[in-house]
Specification:
heterodimer; A: 378 residues; mainly alpha; 14 helices; elongated; B: 76 residues; 2 helices
Chain lengths: 378, 76
């Protein structure tokens, strides 16, 4: 590895930092409903999810080639642009985490890369057709598909078990939930750790340390798996609370229906060639499970804020990515400045989160008092 | 631009079918389990509901294993 420069090291560290935010941003997808219904204790849930993400990272290296290839023109991408794109993705992930909003980490990453490449190499470096085909259309479709599936399943679950002993059915659905939530975690590890592996591999290729089309080396797989697992275990409690308690009040039959629906949609979409964002699938499924149970209140203002965050993810991450690229493409000094600025922003967001901390102890409290400051901030 | 509407349609139909199947089988299994529990408490024989519940949960377990099979590329 003679080609590994300061910049490449920075990119790899940043990619792992992104992977970490990806993990704690997405813990909620798999575990929010299990935590909300009491199927799993919060700490146990994130531990299981983290372990399965690590296992998942080792299972598949398939996606790593394509994730970098489709959206932007690989030939134009320099390590500095990749770094800038990652900064955009990390900043957006942290900001949405602070607001407790589930947003797609893959969209943040794509957005950041698009912004950086667009700024540095012009719009010809971005494949807009692919952006619409692989990001925009699926983003609109995912919540509807998952929502309808979960709504139907929830309705049937309540219909079938309506007259039965509530203790048996409640406990039964809780056990079922653990299985379906575990599948979501495993699928997440196989998909999302790939993104970071793809990014690191792409960087090493563009720096000349790896051949075109090379497989990710073992240390890349290991470190990416560990970063996402650690992030998952730390747990994005703010987002878990929004998804478990904020969108709708979830009972165990709904949790089971939502998780089963998410699992089915994620697996079907990755095997039938129409990739959907895990975050949007899971949020849509939870919403659907609220609609499927009569008398369940769906908090549309929370759902609306989520939808706005989804719409903003790509352009906002692209904006930060472009901004970072404007500095980072000017040599090592520029990269250092951008990295320090990104660290400062991250520290600021962390400090802001300490004012209203959410942790495993209060994750199941309905965020009543949170609504006011959240609105004031918006 | 090539939007794969038929793939999306397939995803929708397959996931709807799979989810409804799992949830219905599981819910029926829970019906049987709760019938078994009632029978046990009343001192009646519980073999039939116990067997029905076992069958349903075994079917669900098989579907979970199929899910694991789909996730792990090494199995393909």
């Amino acid at each position: 590895m003679d080609h590994v420069s300061f910049l490449v090291v920075v990119v790899i560290v940043t990619a792992l930092a992104f992977d970490f935010t990806n993990g704690f941003h997405d813990t909620a997808n798999a575990m929010a409903t299990s935590i909300a219904t009491g199927a799993l204790r919060p700490k146990v849930a994130v531990a299981i999810s983290g372990a399965l993400n690590l296992v998942g990272a080792f299972l598949s290296v398939e996606v790593a080639h394509t994730i970098s290839g489709g959206i932007v023109d690989d030939k134009l991408v320099s390590p500095a642009m990749i770094f800038a794109g990652l900064v955009g993705a990390i900043v957006w992930n942290l900001l949405t985490w602070l607001l407790g909003l589930p947003s797609s980490s893959s969209h943040a990453l794509f957005g950041g890369l698009i912004g950086a490449v667009w700024f540095s190499a012009g719009s010809s470096g971005v494949h807009f057709d692919t952006v619409v085909e692989k990001i925009l259309i699926p983003a609109v479709a995912a919540p509807f598909v998952a929502g309808f599936v979960a709504m139907t399943a929830t309705y049937l679950a309540y219909r079938i078990t309506a007259k039965e002993r509530s203790d048996t059915t409640r406990d039964g659905f809780r056990i079922g939930q653990i299985a379906s939530a575990s599948l979501v975690s495993l699928a997440h590890g196989t998909n999302d750790a790939q993104k970071t592996m793809g990014v690191i591999t792409l960087t090493l290729i563009s720096a000349g340390a790896l051949d075109q089309g090379a497989d990710p080396p073992f240390w890349v797989i290991l470190s990416a798996g560990l970063a996402i697992a650690l992030g998952t275990y730390i747990g994005g409690w703010r987002i878990i609370r929004t998804m478990g308690k904020g969108i709708t009040e979830i009972e165990s039959p709904q949790g089971f229906a939502a998780e089963s629906g998410s699992t089915a949609v994620i697996l079907a979409s990755s095997h039938l060639g129409f990739a959907l964002s895990t975050t949007q699938v899971c949020s849509g499924a939870i919403l659907g499970s609220g609609l499927g149970r009569r008398l369940a209140e769906v908090r549309w203002n929370v759902a609306g804020r989520m939808a706005v965050a989804w719409l903003l993810t790509l352009p906002a991450a692209a904006g930060v990515g472009a901004l970072a690229a404007s500095v980072a493409t000017h040599g090592d000094l520029g990269v250092t400045i951008a990295a320090v600025a990104a660290l400062a922003v991250a520290a600021g967001i962390y400090a802001a989160s300490r004012r209203t901390p959410v942790h495993s102890g209060n994750v199941n409290e309905v965020p009543e008092q949170r609504r006011e400051p959240a609105r004031a901030a918006a | 631009m090539d939007i794969k509407w038929s793939s999306l349609g397939q995803v929708f139909v397959v996931s709807l079918g799979a989810t409804v199947a799992v949830v219905v089988i599981f819910a029926v299994g829970l019906l049987a389990a709760s019938a078994r529990q009632t029978a046990v408490e009343q001192g009646r024989p519980a073999t039939v509901p116990a067997a029905a519940a076992g069958l349903c949960f075994a079917a669900c377990a098989a579907l979970v294993l199929y899910g694991v099979y789909l996730i792990v590329p090494q199995f393909h």
